């Protein structure tokens, strides 16, 4: 069921690393859109069984942003692990690029009462875990590896703003991510477009394939297996706010038991 959590973490936030911007780069943000707000509710399933409910909320001003997310497992997932995870992040916005300032998440269903926090002094993702993990991985992520990496929630939002896009595609390139212990990359490939219909949206969606590339911060028995790495997580991205922002309306991974699908149930623009 670890693959279900990977995809759930992406929906909570799996979008990506952004560099610290110098003052001269502020001019680039002029191309960014004005204030935007979005709330998306998702449901996740394995085969025909509902396994998770996810709500993601993002608010974007001209020069900063904030977001929150909640993931709760249900049904089949309860046979594997319980989760009721609440996450939040705030930071600075430079057009399509996001520089997080503070991220944290807490699993209300866990008996460990652990808050996983990340600060970003000078753009270096720095863990602030209480109580601390007994092991930060073998080997742990170095400061050099954490430089420029963002939290999972900022990563998802940044993809929708175009941080992983090129002149030819919404999905192109690589984004570094740090979740408080694990450091990994998401490598994106364009999958073309497909007409889809969900409860929340219908139309031509941009397909993005995201390949999970582990770097450091994993215990030996937690390192992703070849099956997880070889199968991409596929996002169907839909335009909202007149195309100023894209949100996933469907997320799918074929790895694991039956694969996992997350689908948007409702989208509210503000």
TrEMBL record:
<keyword id="KW-0732">Signal</keyword>
<dbReference type="InterPro" id="IPR021457">
    <property type="entry name" value="DUF3108"/>
</dbReference>
<feature type="signal peptide">
    <location>
        <begin position="1"/>
        <end position="22"/>
    </location>
</feature>
<dbReference type="Pfam" id="PF11306">
    <property type="entry name" value="DUF3108"/>
</dbReference>
<protein>
    <recommendedName>
        <fullName>DUF3108 domain-containing protein</fullName>
    </recommendedName>
</protein>
